[in-house]
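::Amino acid chain::
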Amino acid sequence: MTIHTHRPRLASALTAAVMSAAVGATLALGASPASAAVSDGYVSGGGSFNNDWGDEGTVSTSAYSPSNAACLWQKILWAEGLLKESKISGNFSAETRVATKKLQSRWNINTTGKADPRTFNTAGKPGRLKYVSGSTASGRELTLKYQGGSHEFTVKRNDKGRYGFYADGAWRSAAYRSLSCR
């Protein structure tokens, strides 16, 4: 009796399975969410503003400090009554870290002391970030108000989707890699 094996078919099937897995892994890596805002260099968004801040980068004592993104975060801490206005400098200090932890605890999220994507997302939720005027259509300016527990301030999303805030008598872009506030 002669036994015939089908090793060429088996090898071909295994090769196809390995190749499919490799292609799938590559596509999964390429499709994994990246912080479009950080790679763009600004706190940014598009379409509805309700989820604009959910993909922001982490701002902390070791990431994007000093920066205007840190300055925006400090304005949020000020609006929430956790940081004095005189401490808004764009430098994510130890004091900013402590205030961030307090706010995270108040919001019932992980107390990392960093303004991470989840923390920014929570700050940008409806009720805190409110529509004032403008359009959410692409290429239009949108004016919003951040309503904190103690104060409020205006933010704008320009026609390129970049957020800005008013500081020191001028509008400042909420940039990750530059500092022009205070």
Summary: The longest helix spans residues 7-31.
